[in-house]
Amino acid sequence: MEDSRITELPEIPSTSTPEIKMKQSEMKQIYERFTRSSVGCCIEGYFTNHLFYADDSILMASSLAVLQKLLDVCDEYAAEHEITYNCENPQNVCT
Fold first, then answer.
1. What CA–CA distance (Å, rounded) separates 12 from 19?
2. Is there a contact between 85 and 74 (Cβ–Cβ < 8 Å)?
3. CB 3.0-4.6 Å disulfide test: which of 6, 31, 50, 61 passes with 66?
4. pLDDT single digits (tens) 42-90
5. For the chain, what are the domain ranges?
6. Gap between the Cα atoms of 77 and 71, Å rounded
7. Angstrom distances, CA of residue 95 to CA of 18, 64, 70
8. Is 90 exceeded by the pLDDT of residue 94?
């Protein structure tokens, strides 16, 4: 389910370092995968499944099964790009 109200990632400033551009590029790729997954939750009429802030990621799901699908997206992306996630301080909030 795609929603035209969902905002795109901001443009990369021309003064960004190559490292920041690479991270922004990776964020855009995983953003697109999350959007294509069509799973997540609805908040105030908006469908979403993730938030990015700096180097933090938040996955939002309506059930544990949906959360697992989002984690699978992360795992697949990491395996394809030979990256690892730092999961030393995970936070889980369920309501």
1. 12
2. yes
3. 61
4. 888 888 998 888 777 889 999 989 999 999 998 998 899 888 877 777 7
5. 18-81
6. 10
7. 39, 12, 18
8. no
Q: CA dist 93 to 47, 59, 62, 63, 66, Å?
A: 19, 10, 12, 12, 14
Query: Looking up tokens 């997954």, which residue turns up?
Result: 37
Enumerate the β-bridge partners of residue 42: 47
For 82: left if phi > 0, alpha if psi spans -120 to 50, otherwise beta; the answer is: left
Alpha-carbon span 89 to 93, nearest angstrom: 13
Backbone angles phi, psi at 43, to 5 degrees: -125, 120
Angle formed by the axes of helices 18-37 and 64-81, to 10°? 140
Produce one character per residue of 15-24: b if its CB has 16 or more CB atoms within 10 Å, e if not.
eeeeeeeeeb
The angle at the Cα of 52, spanning 47 to 55, to the nearest 5 degrees, equals 165
